[in-house]
Design a protein that fits this description.
This protein has about 90 residues and is of the alpha+beta class. The protein has 3 helices and 5 strands, in the order βββββααα.
């Protein structure tokens, strides 16, 4: 019996690893964009492998295309604040 861990890919550097080793940002069905520390929230998710890729994803607006939405400066500010709280 094989327990195959789900693989995810960083939206910035394209590194693949298990879901647990990434930060997940999710666009909920209501359209809210938020950090998902549990990895279980309902919605479209985007994964980054660390704080450097998180910062680069914000600078290059990779979250916009990965989550198929347009994030505001407030959204980005809130995400940065949430990530800093979790570190």
């Amino acid at each position: 019996m094989s327990s195959h861990a789900k693989q995810r890919t960083c939206i910035v550097c394209r590194k693949t690893d298990t879901k647990q080793s990434f930060l997940r940002v999710v666009r909920t069905p209501e359209g809210q964009v938020e950090l998902d520390p549990t990895g279980k929230k309902n919605g479209r998710g985007a994964y980054v492998c660390g704080i450097a890729c998180f910062e680069k994803a914000i600078a290059t607006k990779r979250f916009d295309s990965a989550l198929r939405t347009k994030l505001t400066e407030d959204d980005y500010g809130r995400l940065k604040s949430d990530v800093l709280k979790t570190l």
